[in-house]
Design brief:
single chain, 183 residues, mainly alpha, Regulator of G-protein Signalling 4, domain 2, disordered N terminus
């Protein structure tokens, strides 16, 4: 009796296969940004003014607070295979809005297992001390249990990814597109 050989694929291998498969499709263009806009791309871009898009360069927090800025930054991070940083930061922002004590522990555990734990499927790059502090915080989860890790990831994105985003083709194409509408 012969059984077909089916390779075992765990989450890490599947993620790696997806990333490797995307290499041939990797792009850093305005079109990649429009594909993930919260609304229909043409309507969204008509709503986005050059002034708004230009303000994203004022500060990282201005970029994060604008829904199209967030979408453009996410598209950029995908080209660098580092969107887990933004996804973790957003998960923490959502977690801080948790009002149900019953949901707090399960949400905290899900965030920890997805982003913080060693070998997590979307592990963020934080130092050992921050990882261990967060692990200890998980013994009694509170709305602030991820604050230090979230701060480190925010700082990493602000100092590292954000300046590259401002020089990226996604951002410069987007600015050009909004300026073209004015002429």
């Amino acid at each position: 009796l012969l059984t077909p050989l089916v390779p075992h694929i765990d989450h890490r291998n599947r993620g790696m296969r997806t990333r490797l498969g995307c290499l041939s499709h990797k792009s850093d263009s305005y079109n990649d940004f429009t594909a993930i806009l919260p609304d229909k791309p043409n309507r969204a871009l008509k709503r986005l003014s050059t002034e708004e898009a230009t303000r994203w360069a004022d500060s990282f927090d201005v970029l994060l607070s604008h829904k199209y800025g967030l979408a453009a930054f996410r598209a950029f991070l995908k080209t660098e295979f580092s969107e887990e940083n933004l996804e973790f930061w957003l998960a923490c922002e959502d977690f801080k809005k948790t009002r149900s004590a019953a949901k707090l522990a399960s949400k905290a555990q899900r965030i920890f297992e997805e982003f913080i734990d060693v070998q997590a499927p979307r592990e963020v790059n934080i130092d050992f001390q921050t990882r261990e502090l967060t692990r200890r915080n998980m013994q009694e989860p509170s709305l602030t249990c991820f604050d230090q890790a979230q701060g480190k990831v925010h700082s990493l994105m602000e100092k590292d990814s954000y300046p590259r985003f401002l020089r990226s083709k996604i951002y410069t194409d987007l600015l050009s597109q909004t300026q073209r509408r004015l002429s």
